[in-house]
Amino acid sequence: MAHLLSLAPPHPGGATGGPGPIHGLDPRGRVLAAAAFAVVVTGLSSLPVLALAAVAALAMLPLSGLPPGPTLRRMVMMDGFILVMLVLLPFTTPGTPALILPGGLVATREGLRLAAEIALTANAVILMLMVLVGTLDPVRLGHALARLRLPLRLVHLLLFTVRYIEVLRAEYDRTRQAMRARAFRPGSNRHTWVSLGQLVGMMLVRALERSERILQAMKCRGFTGQIPLLDDLSFGAGDRLFGVLFALALGCLIAMEVALVRAA
Amino acid sequence: MHIVDGALANPVVIGGAVAAAGGIALGLRAMTMERIPAAGVLSAAFFVASLVHVPIGPSSVHLILNGMAGLVLGWAAFPALFVGLLLQAVFFGFGGVTVLGVNTFNIAMPAVIVGLVLGPLIRRGGAHAAIWGGVGGALAIALTTLCVAICLALSGDQFLAAAKLVFLAHIPVMAVEAVLTAAAVSLALRVKPELFHVMETTR
C-alpha cells in the first residue's frame, strides 16, 4: 500500500517493507528517537559536533534498508530548496571578511559558519527522520502516533490520507492520460493553467463523492464514530537497548558541545 | 517554501509550534467523526495535487493550493495540511522536524484566512465567484511567502535578503495559483457546489 510513500522496495511477507535491523524496533521508540535527535541537533552550534551528528545519521542509513542512492538524492533535493538562502548568508551576515569576490561582494567568516551550521543541522535531522521513521509503513506510523497520545481524530485523518493518496494518484494519472489522448501538451500558457485547474477541481469533486460512498459503506458496517486500531506494538528488550544507546549518543553530542563552547 | 531545521531562532520555532497546535485543535473540533472521511480523502487530494508540476516560463513550479484548501476545508485545513507536511518530511525528506509547527502555520493560516474572508463570496456563486477564487489563490500564496519572510526576518537581519528573494520569487507562483484556483472554483461550483459546504457546522 502507498507505494508513493515508501522509499524502501516492496518486501512481500514483511509488514514494514525492506530489511534492516531498524525494522525490528518499536515504531514508538523510533518516532521519539527521531524527535529527540531533532531537538538536540537543532540546539547544537559547534561545527565539529554537528558534523559528527550528520555522520551518525549517515551511519544509520545502511541499518535502515533504505536504498542509499535515492534517499541521499532526496536529501540533496531539499538542499536545492535552501541553496539560495545558504549562498546569500555569507554575504549578508556582518563580521570579519573571509573572501572577497570580484565586484566588491564580501563573504564573512561568521556568515560562512552560519550557512554551514544550517546545512549540517537540516541534513542531519532530515536524514535521521527518514532512516528511523521513513522506513515505517505509513499505517504503523499512524498507530505509533496514536499510542503516543496524538489526538485520535488527527490519527484517523492521517490514516485516511495515507489510504487514499495512492488511489487519488492513480486517478490523477488516468486523467492526465485522458488529457494526453486529447492532444493536451502542457506549456507555459493560460490554457495549460486553466486545464490543470479544472483537473484539480474535478479531482476534489471526485474525492468528495468518493468520501460520501466511503461513509455510507462504513455506516453500513456499523460505524459508530470509533475506528479500532489494530496493531501489535510491543516495546521489548531490543527497544530498551536501542533507547539507552541512542540516549547515550545524544548525551555525548551534548557533552562535546558544552566542552567545545567552554573551550572557545 | 519549506523552512528547514536550524535556520530559525528558538522563539520563532516555539511560537510557530504553539500557534500550529492551536490551529490544529480548532480544526479537529470542526471535524466530527462523520466528516473525517471527507476531510481525509480531500486531504489526500490536496497532497496529490501538490505533486503536480506546472510549467512556468523556462522552469516549473509545484502547486501548493492552500487557498483552495482553505475554501473547501475551513479550519480543518490546519490538520489536513499538517498531515501533508508530516508525510512529506518523513517520506520525502522535505522540510524538517522542529520546524513542522512553523511550516504548518505558514501554509495553513493563510488558507484559513482565505476561507473565512472569501468563502462566503464564493458560496454565493454567480459570475464573480471564479474571480474571487483567483484572488484567494493568489492571496494565500502571498500571505504564506509573507509569513515565511517574517519568520526569517525575526530570526536575524542576515536573513532579510533571503526573505525578500523568497517573496519576489513567488510572484509568478501567485499568478499561476490564481488562474488555477479560479478554474478549479468555477468548475466545482458548476459540478458540485457542496464542495464548499463540506465542513459547515449548520447543514
From TrEMBL, chain B:
Keyword presence, ATP-binding: no
Protein's UniProt keywords contain Protease: no
Gene Ontology CC, one term: plasma membrane
Membrane topology classification: Multi-pass membrane protein
Lineage top rank: taxon: Bacteria
One of the GO biological process terms: transition metal ion transport
InterPro entries named in the record: CbiM/NikMN
Keywords: Cell membrane, Membrane, Transmembrane, Transmembrane helix, Transport
Compartments it resides in: Cell membrane
Main location (coarse class): membrane
Protein name from the UniProt record: Cobalt/nickel transport system permease protein
